[in-house]
Amino acid sequence: ESSPPVVFLGVARIRDQATLATYFDKGALNADKKGFEGALASILERSGSAYPGWRERAECRECDGVLHALADAQAMFVVVAGLRDAQYPDRVALQLLRDLADKVKGSQGDEAISEAKPGSLSAPLRKLMREVLKSYSDPSAHDKTTEVREKVDQLKGIMQDNVKRILETHVTMEALDNSSNSMSTQANRFLRQSVDLRRQIQYRNMKIKLIASSCAAAVVMYVGTMFIEF
């Protein structure tokens, strides 16, 4: 019987880099155990800046494999999976880690994970990790599901981008509408001011004409008076 591609699963707390639980396949060699434990220590050294969904990987030099790691949604702990098969699809490995993280949190809860002593969760999680390891021993059984899920996620992303664009366009149209209303108001104000100014000019011209007419009449009367006296 060939060895399964997934030979190691583990859970470690990020805060103090404590390894809370480990599980090796029964066919794992001493080289596998030593190599993956060393790879886990290497990943934990780099986990200080881990954030929700943080991903990392480390080579297993002793066993010619790779260790994948994923931080949970609160960046409280990381789950790891040791793969002996270099051809194991990355997206299936990621799905394995997500499933493992969800099941660990659902099984133990935040408080237990936060307060557990190193190694104390190996026994409570042994059955759970054994089932996950067995379930993902055949990546083809999960590859199609994972592919469909990724396409759904991509479609969601596209839809969210489209909604964002529509909202931005709506905001732009509102801004243009407001700008148009403002320009219309300013134009109406300018027209009113122009009419008022024209009326003022007409009134001033009328006053000037009246004054000029009065002056002319006064001159005529004055000249007429001189002729009469003469």
UniProtKB/TrEMBL annotation:
CDD domains cross-referenced by the UniProt entry: R-SNARE (cd15843)
Signal sequence range: none
Keyword Transport: yes
InterPro entries found in the cross-reference section: Longin-like_dom_sf, Synaptobrevin-like, Synaptobrevin-like_transport, V_SNARE_CC
Keyword Transport among record annotations: yes
One Pfam family matching this protein: Synaptobrevin
Domain V-SNARE coiled-coil homology, first and last residues per copy: 144-204
GO terms classed as biological process: protein transport; vesicle-mediated transport
Gene Ontology cellular component list: membrane
Record's keyword terms, sorted: Coiled coil, Protein transport, Transport
Protein name (database record): V-SNARE coiled-coil homology domain-containing protein
Annotated source species: Zooxanthella nutricula
